[in-house]
TrEMBL record, chain B:
EC number: 7.1.1.-
Catalytic activity: a quinone + NADH + 5 H(+)(in) = a quinol + NAD(+) + 4 H(+)(out)
Name of the protein this chain belongs to: NADH-quinone oxidoreductase subunit K
Pfam families in the cross-refs: Oxidored_q2
Length: 237, 135
């Protein structure tokens, strides 16, 4: 009865309100969390298993939106809206742009999964089994108290962020600036090469001074991709 | 709410992302799976922050601050990652991870050429020269 005693000391206020919360009598928040969690997990599974690349990005929207709803259920409102703004708003749009810039044929692609998918499945299932066992065993008698004021409103989050976390916040702005400059540099090189190479030669063509093995290596898998790359840089220019 | 609900959902999402990272061939799909793993970590951070802010009177809200930092770093990572993937696609004509084997040891490139005279070092050097020349 020691786990029950420690749980009672941890969630004493919760136990005053409802004497013994249990698995067999889930609250409404738990049922909602479970349903949204099922939708989120299903969307995530479809994201990593579908063969249509654009559908994967759209199912990722469902998974990330479901996670935003889970944050709302955990009373972390600010995180939920940041999740909607940044992930659903910008990251997925970036991913869709990347997909459409690199894969010209939109549709079913049979080579989306690599050959070692069964090994990957075994590793993932083993990791999931071990982690679920450990986590459930560790937090079997732990309850979150969701009553009262929300734990993650904009007021509370802003106060803690700008009182205790100012220095990491400013360091993060430097990191974002570095990422911005890095992305611009990485994109500018290809564009300058396309502008300098002219329209006749595609940028992926090997220079004449390069060794013949290099030309043979790149033209093996990318013989059809060379024209795609040329058309791609034509489109972006 | 029982803490096991968000913890188990986080574990399942993380392992889904793990499968995606290991099994996918396209680099952008791998980036999507990395996003799933990062979101699983975020859910864990938020759930434990909400628990500890009540149970242990923790007022730092370190979990939520770390979640915001993780989201910002993930946004930066996806920008840089997509820029790298696009640069690789322009240079090589493919974004399949299985075909980017220039720095692999012990693997001969599975191309049509059977030119075994060059070692991996010279091939990598030639590829680097090509990348420099195109850049």
């Amino acid at each position: 009865m020691t786990p029950a005693a420690t749980a009672g000391s941890l969630v004493g206020t919760m136990n005053l309100a409802a004497e013994s919360p249990g698995f067999l009598s889930p609250t409404g928040v738990e049922i909602a969390f479970l349903l949204v969690g099922l939708v989120t997990f299903g969307a995530a599974v479809v994201t990593v298993t579908t063969r249509q690349l654009v559908h994967a990005a759209l199912w990722l929207v469902v998974a990330l939106g479901g996670l935003a709803v889970e944050y709302l259920l955990l009373t972390a409102e600010f995180i939920a809206w940041v999740q909607v703004l940044i992930y659903v708003g910008s990251v997925v749009v970036l991913l869709l742009f990347g997909l459409m810039l690199t894969r010209a044929p939109i549709g079913r692609s049979p080579d989306a999964d690599s050959g070692n998918r069964w090994v990957a499945l075994a590793v993932a299932v083993a990791a999931a089994a071990a982690l679920v066992w450990v986590v459930v065993d560790a937090f079997r008698t732990t309850w979150i108290d969701l009553d009262g004021a929300p734990a993650g409103s904009t007021d509370v989050t802003g106060a803690s962020l700008f009182q205790h976390w100012v220095l990491p916040f400013e360091a993060l702005s430097v990191l974002l600036l570095a990422a911005l400059v890095g992305a611009i540099v990485l994109s500018r090189k290809a564009k300058a090469a396309a502008a300098g190479g002219g329209t006749a030669t595609p940028p992926a063509a090997p220079p004449p001074t390069a060794a013949p093995p290099a030309g043979g290596r790149t033209s093996g898998p990318g013989a059809s991709g060379t024209t795609d790359a040329g058309r791609d840089t034509e489109g972006t220019r | 709410m029982h803490l096991a609900y968000p913890a188990v959902l986080s574990v399942l999402l993380f392992c889904t992302g793990l499968y995606g990272v290991l099994a996918r061939r396209n680099a952008i799909l791998v980036l999507m799976s990395v996003e799933l793993m990062l979101n699983a970590v975020n859910l864990n951070l938020v759930a434990f922050d909400v628990w500890l802010s009540r149970a242990a009177e923790e007022t730092l809200h370190s979990g939520q601050a770390l979640t915001l930092f993780t989201i910002a770093i993930a946004a930066a990572e996806i920008g840089i990652g997509l820029a790298i993937v696009l640069a690789v696609y322009r240079n090589r004509g493919t974004s399949d991870i299985d075909k980017l084997r220039d720095t692999a040891e012990g693997h001969e490139p599975d191309g049509p050429d059977t030119d075994v005279s060059d070692s991996d070092a010279s091939a990598t050097q030639a590829a680097a020269e090509k990348a420099e020349a195109t850049a």
